[in-house]
Amino acid sequence: MTAETMMRDHAVAPDWKIRLRDLSKVFQTNSGPFTALEPITLDIPTGCFFMIVGPSGCGKTTLLRILAGLEKRTSGTMEISAPAANRPSNSMVFQGDSLFPWMNVFENAAYGLRMRGLPRAEIKDIVGHYLQRTGLSRFHNSYPHQLSGGMRQRVSIARAFANDPDILLMDEPFSALDEQNKILLQEELLRIWEETRKTVMFITHSVDEAVTLGDRIMIMTAHPGRSKLIVDVPFERPRRVLELRARPEYGELVYSIWGHLRDEVQRARAQDEESAK
Amino acid sequence: MSEVVEKAKDVRKASRPFSLRPSVGTIERMLNVISPVFLLLIWEICARLGLIDVRFFPAPSKIFTQLMILAENGQLWKHFSASMQRLFWGFLFGGIPALILGVTMGLSRPLRMIVEPVISATYPIPKSAILPLVLLIFGLGESSKIVMVGIGIFYPIVINSMAGVLEISKIHFDVSRNFGASRWQVFRTVALPGAMPLILTGVRLGIGLGLVLISLAEIVGAKSGLGFMMWNAWEILSVETMYVGLLVIAMLGIAFTILINELERLIVPWKQSR
User: Fold this and answer.
1) Average pLDDT over residues B48-54
2) What distance in Å separates residue B92's CA from the closest CA in chain A?
């Protein structure tokens, strides 16, 4: 955990897990300051599956990286309620190929636990469980280059869950996958998540994915990014991806979110065209 | 569809034991052996027919006879082991610091900024040119030879280790930070294994250079070693012994290459099938 992150012990567990007040981020680049995030204020309740959608370049990944401790905020405050003893505050599922090519599936999935110095036997049990849950038991000894993209992303998910963090941060984990694999992995993710119901912060550019997985969706504006609208997803849990998608309310919600997002996507596109000139 | 494939496999499997045609791999391996053997054969014939001056190019059979003589009277082993010991210590004293320094330079930008100019400036100096200086400082004993080998091995390993770490994708460092790895853990679980393929390339280059430098150092100031053996052979006009020395060094080169290839298979199994 980085020193700048404020951690508070509460006698009574707070009803929020993450609390941001006017959090912003400005990068210093060679061509002057670049505002990635305009001040954002946000409360994320404990156990909430929180989705962020926004056009590309809107700073959603920056927000996640600040929460992960990989980037420092420029201003504002960030409070994350302290995890139980010996548990990490957060673990991230990265976008793209983040597995270590020099470690096999088991070693990759065990990475967080090994860094925390857990006893070997315990690591074996925990990792074994999550590899089994993600259908990777047979591939213990395989190296990442021997796996398909979908399998690699499953290892990445197993690695984050095995670490048993208080908060899961997911940065477009399925964006590189084809539609069929995506749906399977979404179902798998929901199944594993149901076991523990951790607080999740999940970034996506897919409205479908946001409505399918999330309890609450934050729509972000085009650059510079800020929160445009927060929508609650009313669907009950546990969910089945395809059944959910067949429901008319699902389509209506996707449609209305798209209505809010469309302007932003168009603005992002105009910005791209402007900078390409 | 799959049935047809199954059948095709069966046919292949069945026909293999009876096939007279060697596989492509076998042919390539044979070509590898045939060309040197063919060259030696021509050499032998030319020497016997007096087409070449045997004072400079003794027949391979003569060289081989001399090799057996030197092997039997223990001379060869004495010189061989002396050179190998120097190589070993030089490798240890030059290679290990180079590995640690190189990987750390890859991890730390400030350190890289400080050390890299020094390395760039001293790297192009021919290592053979500093032999007099090394002899002056370390004397004629073992240490000067070990230092020469060490210096030769240091450069390729330090440069390759650093380059190896810089090649590692940034996301892997993000992952290790997010999963709470300490500095030492980042070194051990990300930087070192990630840089290993290039480090092994450095080791390969370093051993080649080490063989060159050890021969040279032993020619100038030693009473044992393969370099000394060859130099001494020149003084007593035993041309065959010189060739034995060359042959042994060439064999050492091949042996080290095979050794490192095996090592590579063992410690970077993730890199082969790319």
Assistant:
1) 89
2) 25
* pLDDT tier, A12 (very low <50, low <70, confident <90, very high otherwise): low
Domains in chain A with CATH codes: 6-89+165-276 (3.40.50.300), 96-164 (no CATH)
Instruction: Tell me which residues of chain B, numbers 195 to 224, contact chain A at a CB-CB cutoff of 8 Å.
Output: 196
Q: Report which of B201, B206, B211, B200 is spatially closest to residue B250, judged by C-alpha positions.
A: B211
B159, pLDDT greater than 60: yes
Tell me if residue B116 falls in helix, strand or coil: helix
| Distance, first Cα to last Cα, chain B | 29
Q: What is the distance, to the nearest Å, from the Cα of residue A129 to the centroid of all Cα atoms in its chain? A: 22
Q: SS3 for B133?
A: helix
Q: What is the pLDDT of residue B19?
A: 59
- Under DSSP, is residue A204 helix (H, G, I), strand (E, B) or coil? strand
Question: CB B194 to CB A102 under 8 A?
Answer: yes
What local confidence, expressed as pLDDT, does residue A10 receive? Answer: 45
Contact B68, B248 (CB under 8 A): no
Sign of CA dihedral A161, A163, A166, A171: negative
Asked whether the beta carbons of residue A96 and residue B177 sit closer than 8 angstroms, the reply is no
Shortest alpha-carbon distance between residue A253 and chain B (Å): 34
Ranges of beta strands (E only) in chain A are: 6-8, 16-29, 32-45, 49-53, 75-81, 90-93, 167-171, 199-204, 216-220, 227-232
Q: What would the two tokens of residue B182 be?
A: 């300490």
DSSP string, A220-254: EPSSSB-EEEEEE----SS--HHHHHTSHHHHHHH
Q: How far apart are CA A21 and CA A39, in angstroms?
A: 8
Instruction: Looking at mean pLDDT, say which of A114-123, A218-227, B134-143, B253-262 comes out highest.
Output: A114-123
CB-based contact B273 A144, cutoff 8 Å: no
Enumerate the residues of chain A whose CB falls inside 8 A of the CB of residue B193: 100, 102-103
What pLDDT is attached to residue A271? 86
Average confidence (pLDDT) over B133-146: 91
Q: What is the pLDDT of residues A40-91, one digit of tens each?
A: 999 999 999 999 998 888 889 999 999 999 999 999 999 888 887 788 989 9
- Closest CA of chain A from B1, distance in Å: 24
- pLDDT over 90 at A96, yes or no: no
Interface contact B172-A70, CB threshold 8 A: no
Domains of chain B: 2-49 (no CATH), 60-272 (1.10.3720.10)
Q: In the prediction, which pLDDT does B2 show?
A: 42
Task: Write the single-letter amino acid at B209.
Answer: L
The CA distances from residue A40 to A20, A29, B80, in Å, are 7, 22, 72
Q: Can you give the pLDDT at residue B1?
A: 38
DSSP letters spanning B180-202: T--HHHHIIIIIHHHHHHHHHHH
